[in-house]
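Onboarding guide, step 5: your first structure request.
Type a short instruction followed by the sequence, for example:

Predict the 3D structure of this protein.
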Amino acid sequence: MPRRNDIAKILAIGCLAVATQLVWAQKPIQVKTVFCVRDARSWSLQRFKPLIDPRASTAFAEMSMAGPRLLEFKLRRFSEKTEATFDYKFDAGGQLNALMGSVTVFGSWVGEANLFPDADGTVPPYHVKYRREGQPIPRPDDATDYIASLDAVPIYRTVQALPCAAMLKEAEKMNATQE
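The system replies with structure tokens like these:
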């Protein structure tokens, strides 16, 4: 005759097995990326990451999507010595809920700041955190030469205000056909 502890263990293992099957049965969310590329006149969509020409001041955006929902819009601007990145995140209603900016001075350091705007649309004074090879560092001597690029952050409060916003349906279709 089995003891109560044995029966409880068997039931617990059975419940765990069923719960594990239910978790694995759900299809994981697939995040796909398309690129919003700026040319001389306008923005366009493409599936592949654009070639970067630092002398031509390349600019493009990475749009990460899960089905029809835009999860992240990362605007990237390159010059000969730096990359400025503006990382926008939106809530389920399409409203801006986070905006981080960073400047990478190639081969030297990275500066990062929270650039979330005030209600009037202006970015309040921000504090830049510097790092080199993942470790915090004091403000580099040449920081003033590069950090000003964070002041040029475009403010997009909604998904509809983004470059390529009119093409989000097209981006969703592009993602649906990606393997």
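Each response can be followed by summary notes, for example: Residues 14-25 have pLDDT under 50 and may be disordered.
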